[in-house]
Amino acid sequence: MAGTHVWHTQQWRDQAVTWATRRLADLGLRVTGPPEQPHVRPWSTLLRIPTSDGPVWLKASGPGTAYEARILQASQHWAVPQLPIPLAVDADRAWLLLADAGSPLRRELATSRNLRQWLAILPEYAQVQMALTPRVGEMLALGVPDLRPRTVPTHYTRLLSDHVWLRLGASDGISRDDLHRLRQLTPQITRWSEQLEALGISPTLQHDDFHDGNVFVRRSSRGVAYVFLDWGDASVAHPFGTLLASLRNVATWMDEPVDHKLLGALRDAYLEPWTAHYDRADLLDAVRWATRLAKVGRALAWRRALTGANGTERATYAEFVAGWLRDLLADDSW
Protein backbone atom coordinates (compact mmCIF):
# COMPACT_ATOMS: atom_id res chain seq x y z
CA MET A 1 0.00 0.00 0.00
CA ALA A 2 1.40 3.40 -0.98
CA GLY A 3 1.02 6.99 0.14
CA THR A 4 1.85 10.48 -1.03
CA HIS A 5 5.61 9.91 -0.84
CA VAL A 6 5.18 7.19 -3.50
CA TRP A 7 2.33 8.71 -5.54
CA HIS A 8 4.37 11.83 -6.25
CA THR A 9 7.11 9.82 -7.97
CA GLN A 10 7.47 9.27 -11.68
CA GLN A 11 8.26 5.62 -11.02
CA TRP A 12 4.86 5.06 -9.42
CA ARG A 13 3.03 6.91 -12.19
CA ASP A 14 4.85 4.84 -14.83
CA GLN A 15 3.88 1.60 -13.06
CA ALA A 16 0.27 2.68 -12.68
CA VAL A 17 -0.07 3.78 -16.29
CA THR A 18 1.55 0.56 -17.52
CA TRP A 19 -0.98 -1.48 -15.53
CA ALA A 20 -3.87 0.65 -16.80
CA THR A 21 -2.65 0.44 -20.40
CA ARG A 22 -2.57 -3.36 -20.25
CA ARG A 23 -6.00 -3.63 -18.64
CA LEU A 24 -7.45 -1.21 -21.22
CA ALA A 25 -5.90 -3.21 -24.05
CA ASP A 26 -7.68 -6.28 -22.71
CA LEU A 27 -10.90 -4.32 -23.27
CA GLY A 28 -9.95 -3.20 -26.78
CA LEU A 29 -9.04 0.35 -25.71
CA ARG A 30 -5.82 2.29 -26.16
CA VAL A 31 -4.28 5.20 -24.31
CA THR A 32 -4.20 8.29 -26.53
CA GLY A 33 -2.21 10.80 -24.49
CA PRO A 34 -0.28 11.51 -21.29
CA PRO A 35 -2.10 11.09 -17.97
CA GLU A 36 -2.93 13.94 -15.62
CA GLN A 37 -2.78 13.71 -11.83
CA PRO A 38 -5.47 16.10 -10.54
CA HIS A 39 -4.66 15.60 -6.87
CA VAL A 40 -2.54 13.70 -4.38
CA ARG A 41 -4.00 13.47 -0.88
CA PRO A 42 -3.03 11.33 2.10
CA TRP A 43 -5.93 8.94 1.49
CA SER A 44 -5.87 8.64 -2.33
CA THR A 45 -4.69 9.94 -5.66
CA LEU A 46 -6.23 10.03 -9.14
CA LEU A 47 -4.86 9.73 -12.65
CA ARG A 48 -6.98 10.90 -15.57
CA ILE A 49 -6.01 8.82 -18.59
CA PRO A 50 -7.27 9.75 -22.09
CA THR A 51 -8.30 6.76 -24.20
CA SER A 52 -9.82 5.94 -27.55
CA ASP A 53 -13.22 5.83 -25.81
CA GLY A 54 -12.90 8.93 -23.64
CA PRO A 55 -11.19 9.50 -20.29
CA VAL A 56 -10.82 6.82 -17.65
CA TRP A 57 -9.72 7.26 -14.06
CA LEU A 58 -7.19 5.32 -12.05
CA LYS A 59 -7.75 5.70 -8.31
CA ALA A 60 -5.14 4.52 -5.82
CA SER A 61 -6.12 4.41 -2.16
CA GLY A 62 -4.03 4.52 0.98
CA PRO A 63 -4.06 1.85 3.68
CA GLY A 64 -6.94 3.34 5.64
CA THR A 65 -9.31 3.42 2.65
CA ALA A 66 -8.02 0.43 0.69
CA TYR A 67 -11.25 -1.50 1.20
CA GLU A 68 -12.97 0.70 -1.41
CA ALA A 69 -11.32 -1.34 -4.16
CA ARG A 70 -12.65 -4.54 -2.58
CA ILE A 71 -16.16 -3.08 -2.26
CA LEU A 72 -16.35 -2.15 -5.93
CA GLN A 73 -14.75 -5.40 -7.03
CA ALA A 74 -17.42 -7.33 -5.12
CA SER A 75 -20.22 -5.01 -6.22
CA GLN A 76 -19.91 -6.29 -9.78
CA HIS A 77 -21.96 -9.26 -8.54
CA TRP A 78 -24.45 -7.26 -6.48
CA ALA A 79 -26.62 -5.89 -9.31
CA VAL A 80 -26.61 -2.35 -7.95
CA PRO A 81 -26.37 -0.08 -11.01
CA GLN A 82 -25.68 3.09 -9.02
CA LEU A 83 -22.29 1.75 -7.93
CA PRO A 84 -19.60 2.11 -10.60
CA ILE A 85 -18.49 -1.10 -12.23
CA PRO A 86 -14.68 -1.05 -12.39
CA LEU A 87 -12.94 -1.66 -15.68
CA ALA A 88 -10.19 -3.34 -13.66
CA VAL A 89 -9.18 -3.81 -10.02
CA ASP A 90 -5.89 -4.59 -8.31
CA ALA A 91 -7.13 -5.19 -4.78
CA ASP A 92 -3.65 -5.88 -3.39
CA ARG A 93 -2.49 -2.42 -4.41
CA ALA A 94 -5.92 -0.81 -3.85
CA TRP A 95 -6.07 0.37 -7.47
CA LEU A 96 -9.31 0.96 -9.35
CA LEU A 97 -9.71 1.70 -13.04
CA LEU A 98 -13.04 3.42 -13.64
CA ALA A 99 -14.91 4.72 -16.65
CA ASP A 100 -15.90 8.36 -16.62
CA ALA A 101 -19.02 8.62 -14.45
CA GLY A 102 -20.65 11.61 -16.11
CA SER A 103 -21.30 15.12 -14.85
CA PRO A 104 -20.75 15.87 -11.16
CA LEU A 105 -23.93 16.98 -9.43
CA ARG A 106 -21.91 19.84 -7.95
CA ARG A 107 -21.26 21.23 -11.43
CA GLU A 108 -24.96 21.05 -12.31
CA LEU A 109 -25.97 22.76 -9.07
CA ALA A 110 -23.50 25.56 -9.70
CA THR A 111 -25.49 26.39 -12.82
CA SER A 112 -29.05 25.49 -11.88
CA ARG A 113 -29.12 25.86 -8.07
CA ASN A 114 -31.89 23.25 -8.27
CA LEU A 115 -31.52 21.57 -4.90
CA ARG A 116 -34.76 19.68 -5.49
CA GLN A 117 -32.73 17.23 -7.60
CA TRP A 118 -31.92 15.61 -4.28
CA LEU A 119 -35.59 14.59 -3.99
CA ALA A 120 -34.88 11.93 -6.61
CA ILE A 121 -31.32 11.09 -5.55
CA LEU A 122 -31.83 10.40 -1.85
CA PRO A 123 -34.57 7.76 -2.17
CA GLU A 124 -32.56 6.06 -4.90
CA TYR A 125 -29.59 5.93 -2.57
CA ALA A 126 -31.87 4.58 0.17
CA GLN A 127 -32.90 1.77 -2.18
CA VAL A 128 -29.23 0.94 -2.70
CA GLN A 129 -28.76 0.70 1.05
CA MET A 130 -31.81 -1.53 1.43
CA ALA A 131 -30.63 -3.78 -1.39
CA LEU A 132 -27.27 -4.25 0.33
CA THR A 133 -28.56 -5.22 3.78
CA PRO A 134 -28.14 -8.95 3.02
CA ARG A 135 -24.50 -8.26 2.14
CA VAL A 136 -23.44 -7.07 5.60
CA GLY A 137 -21.46 -10.22 6.44
CA GLU A 138 -19.75 -10.12 3.06
CA MET A 139 -18.85 -6.45 3.45
CA LEU A 140 -17.41 -6.97 6.91
CA ALA A 141 -15.31 -9.83 5.52
CA LEU A 142 -14.00 -7.43 2.86
CA GLY A 143 -12.68 -5.19 5.62
CA VAL A 144 -15.38 -2.52 5.56
CA PRO A 145 -15.28 -0.88 9.03
CA ASP A 146 -17.88 -2.11 11.50
CA LEU A 147 -19.81 0.86 12.88
CA ARG A 148 -23.08 -0.90 13.59
CA PRO A 149 -24.82 0.90 16.44
CA ARG A 150 -23.83 -1.61 19.11
CA THR A 151 -20.13 -1.05 18.29
CA VAL A 152 -20.19 2.75 18.51
CA PRO A 153 -19.87 3.14 22.31
CA THR A 154 -16.65 1.12 22.29
CA HIS A 155 -15.26 3.10 19.34
CA TYR A 156 -16.19 6.31 21.13
CA THR A 157 -14.52 5.38 24.41
CA ARG A 158 -11.32 4.36 22.64
CA LEU A 159 -11.29 7.53 20.57
CA LEU A 160 -11.58 9.72 23.67
CA SER A 161 -8.54 7.94 25.10
CA ASP A 162 -6.39 8.76 22.07
CA HIS A 163 -4.99 12.16 23.06
CA VAL A 164 -2.71 12.31 20.03
CA TRP A 165 -5.62 12.29 17.59
CA LEU A 166 -7.67 14.53 19.85
CA ARG A 167 -4.83 17.08 19.74
CA LEU A 168 -5.62 17.71 23.38
CA GLY A 169 -5.08 21.33 24.32
CA ALA A 170 -4.05 22.44 20.82
CA SER A 171 -5.83 25.38 19.21
CA ASP A 172 -7.41 23.08 16.61
CA GLY A 173 -7.94 20.20 19.01
CA ILE A 174 -10.08 19.21 21.98
CA SER A 175 -9.85 21.36 25.09
CA ARG A 176 -9.75 19.65 28.47
CA ASP A 177 -13.16 21.12 29.25
CA ASP A 178 -14.61 19.70 26.03
CA LEU A 179 -13.01 16.33 26.75
CA HIS A 180 -14.73 16.28 30.12
CA ARG A 181 -18.07 17.09 28.47
CA LEU A 182 -17.53 14.44 25.80
CA ARG A 183 -16.83 11.83 28.46
CA GLN A 184 -20.02 12.82 30.25
CA LEU A 185 -21.83 12.15 26.96
CA THR A 186 -20.78 8.46 26.98
CA PRO A 187 -24.01 7.17 28.61
CA GLN A 188 -26.05 9.07 25.99
CA ILE A 189 -24.00 7.56 23.17
CA THR A 190 -24.82 4.16 24.61
CA ARG A 191 -28.54 5.01 24.86
CA TRP A 192 -28.71 6.20 21.26
CA SER A 193 -26.98 3.00 20.14
CA GLU A 194 -29.34 0.80 22.15
CA GLN A 195 -32.40 2.69 20.90
CA LEU A 196 -31.32 2.24 17.30
CA GLU A 197 -30.70 -1.46 17.84
CA ALA A 198 -34.14 -1.82 19.44
CA LEU A 199 -35.90 -0.31 16.42
CA GLY A 200 -34.51 -3.12 14.28
CA ILE A 201 -33.62 -1.17 11.12
CA SER A 202 -30.94 -3.28 9.48
CA PRO A 203 -27.38 -1.96 9.18
CA THR A 204 -25.99 -1.69 5.69
CA LEU A 205 -23.35 0.11 3.64
CA GLN A 206 -23.32 3.74 4.74
CA HIS A 207 -21.37 6.01 2.37
CA ASP A 208 -20.65 8.57 5.12
CA ASP A 209 -19.66 11.33 2.69
CA PHE A 210 -22.66 11.39 0.37
CA HIS A 211 -22.54 14.92 -1.04
CA ASP A 212 -22.79 16.65 -4.42
CA GLY A 213 -19.15 15.93 -5.24
CA ASN A 214 -19.71 12.18 -5.05
CA VAL A 215 -22.97 11.99 -7.01
CA PHE A 216 -22.60 11.93 -10.80
CA VAL A 217 -25.33 12.39 -13.38
CA ARG A 218 -25.64 10.59 -16.71
CA ARG A 219 -28.25 11.88 -19.16
CA SER A 220 -29.35 9.96 -22.22
CA SER A 221 -32.40 9.33 -24.38
CA ARG A 222 -33.46 6.80 -21.73
CA GLY A 223 -33.53 9.44 -19.02
CA VAL A 224 -31.34 10.34 -16.04
CA ALA A 225 -29.16 7.86 -14.17
CA TYR A 226 -27.05 8.48 -11.08
CA VAL A 227 -23.67 7.02 -10.15
CA PHE A 228 -22.44 7.15 -6.57
CA LEU A 229 -18.67 7.40 -6.25
CA ASP A 230 -15.95 7.54 -3.60
CA TRP A 231 -16.71 4.81 -1.06
CA GLY A 232 -13.45 5.22 0.85
CA ASP A 233 -15.20 6.58 3.97
CA ALA A 234 -17.93 3.96 3.94
CA SER A 235 -18.77 1.67 6.82
CA VAL A 236 -21.30 -0.94 7.82
CA ALA A 237 -23.54 1.21 9.98
CA HIS A 238 -27.06 2.42 10.54
CA PRO A 239 -28.22 3.67 7.13
CA PHE A 240 -29.69 6.95 8.37
CA GLY A 241 -26.32 8.32 9.47
CA THR A 242 -25.79 9.26 5.84
CA LEU A 243 -28.13 12.23 6.28
CA LEU A 244 -25.57 14.03 8.43
CA ALA A 245 -23.27 14.72 5.49
CA SER A 246 -25.97 14.92 2.82
CA LEU A 247 -28.26 17.48 4.45
CA ARG A 248 -25.38 19.60 5.68
CA ASN A 249 -24.04 19.66 2.15
CA VAL A 250 -27.41 20.77 0.76
CA ALA A 251 -27.63 23.48 3.43
CA THR A 252 -24.32 24.99 2.24
CA TRP A 253 -26.04 25.93 -1.03
CA MET A 254 -28.79 27.83 0.74
CA ASP A 255 -28.87 31.51 1.46
CA GLU A 256 -29.71 32.57 4.99
CA PRO A 257 -32.07 31.70 6.48
CA VAL A 258 -31.68 28.00 5.72
CA ASP A 259 -34.76 26.47 4.09
CA HIS A 260 -35.62 23.92 6.79
CA LYS A 261 -38.82 23.02 4.94
CA LEU A 262 -36.81 21.77 1.96
CA LEU A 263 -34.34 19.97 4.21
CA GLY A 264 -37.27 18.25 5.91
CA ALA A 265 -38.69 17.28 2.52
CA LEU A 266 -35.33 15.79 1.51
CA ARG A 267 -35.12 13.84 4.77
CA ASP A 268 -38.64 12.52 4.19
CA ALA A 269 -37.85 11.57 0.58
CA TYR A 270 -34.88 9.56 1.81
CA LEU A 271 -37.02 7.84 4.46
CA GLU A 272 -39.86 6.99 2.07
CA PRO A 273 -38.58 3.47 1.17
CA TRP A 274 -38.69 2.54 4.87
CA THR A 275 -42.23 3.82 5.53
CA ALA A 276 -43.80 0.56 4.43
CA HIS A 277 -42.13 -1.19 7.36
CA TYR A 278 -41.80 1.40 10.15
CA ASP A 279 -43.86 4.15 11.76
CA ARG A 280 -42.94 7.69 10.80
CA ALA A 281 -42.32 8.68 14.42
CA ASP A 282 -39.85 5.81 14.83
CA LEU A 283 -38.08 6.78 11.61
CA LEU A 284 -37.69 10.38 12.74
CA ASP A 285 -36.32 9.24 16.09
CA ALA A 286 -33.86 6.99 14.27
CA VAL A 287 -32.68 9.90 12.11
CA ARG A 288 -31.95 11.97 15.23
CA TRP A 289 -30.03 9.20 16.94
CA ALA A 290 -28.20 7.94 13.85
CA THR A 291 -27.02 11.38 12.70
CA ARG A 292 -25.60 12.05 16.15
CA LEU A 293 -23.74 8.74 16.19
CA ALA A 294 -22.56 9.47 12.65
CA LYS A 295 -20.42 12.28 14.07
CA VAL A 296 -18.37 9.60 15.80
CA GLY A 297 -18.23 7.81 12.46
CA ARG A 298 -16.95 10.93 10.71
CA ALA A 299 -14.17 11.33 13.28
CA LEU A 300 -13.19 7.70 12.78
CA ALA A 301 -13.30 8.10 8.99
CA TRP A 302 -10.81 10.97 9.16
CA ARG A 303 -8.55 8.96 11.42
CA ARG A 304 -8.65 6.02 8.98
CA ALA A 305 -8.02 8.31 6.02
CA LEU A 306 -4.83 9.56 7.66
CA THR A 307 -3.42 6.10 8.31
CA GLY A 308 0.16 6.23 7.05
CA ALA A 309 0.12 10.01 6.61
CA ASN A 310 3.30 11.92 7.42
CA GLY A 311 3.52 14.45 10.22
CA THR A 312 2.75 17.44 8.02
CA GLU A 313 -0.31 15.76 6.54
CA ARG A 314 -1.62 14.75 9.94
CA ALA A 315 -1.14 18.28 11.22
CA THR A 316 -3.06 19.58 8.21
CA TYR A 317 -6.09 17.32 8.48
CA ALA A 318 -6.18 15.94 12.04
CA GLU A 319 -8.32 18.87 13.16
CA PHE A 320 -11.28 17.13 11.54
CA VAL A 321 -11.07 14.24 14.00
CA ALA A 322 -11.38 16.64 16.91
CA GLY A 323 -13.86 18.84 15.05
CA TRP A 324 -16.41 16.08 14.52
CA LEU A 325 -16.18 15.08 18.16
CA ARG A 326 -16.72 18.67 19.26
CA ASP A 327 -19.76 18.70 17.01
CA LEU A 328 -21.35 16.12 19.31
CA LEU A 329 -21.63 18.86 21.92
CA ALA A 330 -23.92 20.87 19.64
CA ASP A 331 -27.62 20.30 20.20
CA ASP A 332 -28.69 19.77 16.61
CA SER A 333 -30.53 17.08 14.72
CA TRP A 334 -32.30 16.48 11.45
TrEMBL record:
| Assigned keywords, A-Z | Transferase
Q: Which domain of life is it from?
A: Bacteria
Q: Name one GO molecular function term.
A: transferase activity
Coiled coil region boundaries? none
Which Gene3D superfamilies did the record assign? 3.90.1200.10
Occurrences of domain Aminoglycoside phosphotransferase (ranges): 57-282
Q: Which InterPro entries match?
A: Aminoglycoside_PTrfase, Kinase-like_dom_sf
The family database entries (SUPFAM superfamilies) matched by this protein are listed as: Protein kinase-like (PK-like) (SSF56112)
Pfam families named among the record's database cross-references: APH (PF01636)
Listed name of the protein = Phosphotransferase family enzyme
Provide the taxonomic classification: Bacteria, Bacillati, Actinomycetota, Actinomycetes, Propionibacteriales
